[in-house]
Amino acid sequence: MARKAVGVALGGLALAVGIGVVLAAPRPSPSAVPATVRLAAGVQDYRPAGEFRIGTRIVDAPPGRARVAAVEIMKYQVSEADYARCMDAGACPATLTGRRADYPQTNVNLGDAMAYAAWLSARTGSAWRLPSDAEWLRAAGNRAVDDALGAEASGSDPSRRWIAGYRREAALRGESGLGPRPLGAFGANDLGVQDIAGNVWEWTGTCFQNGTVSADGQTIASRADYCGVRAVQGRHRAFVIDFIRDARVGGCSAGLPPDHLGFRLVRSPAR
Prior knowledge:
paralog of FGE (formylglycine-generating enzyme), seven-stranded mixed β-sheet, four-stranded antiparallel β-sheet, 271 residues, alpha+beta, 25% strand
């Protein structure tokens, strides 16, 4: 009788433990957490992203400053292997990938990047998202570029602005090569962020803006977001339609198209 009671008690304990295992929430995997670089809170020199006019003339948006909260940004861009794991889990749309751990994932659109952010957030228990345009510029450090073209390109002849923009962006791109290169090939900036402003442009969460500027060019008079187009950042800022995966074949709404479209995420708040 005593043996039977002990057996029942042990069986009940095993059942309780089993139920506990079933009901317990899955714990985030430490190995799933990407390496990050912490960006301190501060104020970033920032020129709004989009197209601004005085009357009918397209002009540079006036410079300003944006307050940026502390975040952590991925040290490297999301790799092919990273994205393939999300595809295999059924959480990310299928796209071209070599599944290599040492190459950045390219051929991704805004929706792909946002799906990966949601999957990584669920997998790690942290809140991951695309950086804003201002956050990306802060992370770019000594590789950040102001896209102003100057007064000479803001006159009544629109062709002068187009030519000035083309020449400037072509000079910034240099001869980086058309093919994707392994992670780390473009080295680290002064903050320790790898490959930023290389030949893979990165999606941001910032919408394209249409706006007007005061007659003296010093202040923004009005602006409105158009979120079907987003700012992407690399060796220069470009604007790409949100569903495009390869801007070289169309979908770049302004400027020279990016060589490749990829992404990295920020974790907010920083830990």
